[in-house]
Amino acid sequence: MSATDISKDAKDSGLAAKDPAKRSRALLIVATVFVLAAVIWFLLWFFVLSRRETTDNAYVGGNQVALSSQVSGTVVAILTDDTQHVEAGQVLVKLDGTDADVRLRQTSSALAQAVRQVRQQTDTVTSADATVAAREVDLRKAQADLKRHLPLVAAQAESPETVQHMRDAVAQAQAALDTAKAQANASRAAIEGVDIADNPTVQQARANFRAAWIAAQRNTIVAPVTGYVAQRSVQLGSSITPGQQLMTIVPLHNLWIDANFKENQLRHIRIGQPVKISTDIYGGSVEYHGKVIGLGAGTGSVFSLLPAQNATGNWIKVVQRVPVRIALDNDELDKHPLRVGLSTDVTVDITNDQGPVLAAAPQQPPAETSVYDRVAAQADAEAEKIISANLGK
């Protein structure tokens, strides 16, 4: 064996003696890394992940107001189109109003005639009262004549036939007075207790005119809410019927998020908890802030068109989801508008889980419009004009 081989064997033996120490240090380093990773993961879960619930099964929701006609007719004008902004009360569609105008003229004339008829009845009552007064005078005169001639009969200065004629005259005057009073009462029954404007005949004619006026106004179909037009299906010349959908109006101001959380994520979700939302439309650069306003009354499968029948056939458990309604900040929506149906990622802060699970009764209506109240008020004003014009004052 050469000196070179001996030196090489000695070197290998020295390295072999050092390998266990290196391996121990390596194992210690690896173990330390794993422990640190576990500690970091625990701290991350305890301070961050355990205090929030997230899901990407969340979509923008909003009201979709289906615009329809309340009367039948033929479309003669369309004043808006898809994607356009409309204001509440703005005229969107017009129908041919020929038939409605004819009906309106008829009821207007009927209302004027009813007012004049009640005026005539009032004058008739006045005339009947005058007739009653005249008949009372006739009766008193006949009674006075009979009273003067009765002593003459006793003194045989007047014939019994003359006195009998006077008695007959008194009876005739009394009958005439009774007839006049009956006629006056009959005339008074139609107008007694109310003035001309509140007379039942006038009120009936007024109601017919009001219905005709409103029907004529409904030939112009207005927007019930402010929003954007979508799904316009109405066309010029179309014959439409009441209830037929013409287009949809989507208000983009008061939107919300429907986040479908798994049932095991709902344990700590409560009403009023803050929420952070990001959307794909802005690439995550815009963050919205909202709050939980309610949890759905059932899972999505319960309200589906064909609910699952788990009591029949083979059954496989499927994790269910419950929609959680999240309100958005309208100021943020005005700066960065969203559209109904967009997908979002939501993160609910569940640090405070002491809030209610069930929503309380709403303090105000979720939605309302006053555009149709104006029509009724205008109809009443037009009816008042017709009544005033025919009162003859």
Automatic annotation (TrEMBL):
It comes from Dyella caseinilytica. It comes from the Bacteria. This is Efflux RND transporter periplasmic adaptor subunit. Gene3D superfamilies: 2.40.30.170, 2.40.50.100, Helix hairpin bin (1.10.287.470). The chain crosses the membrane at residues 26-48. Residues 163-190 form a coiled coil. InterPro entries: AaeA-lik-b-barrel, EmrA/FarA_HH, MFP. Residues 256-347 form the p-hydroxybenzoic acid efflux pump subunit AaeA-like beta-barrel domain.
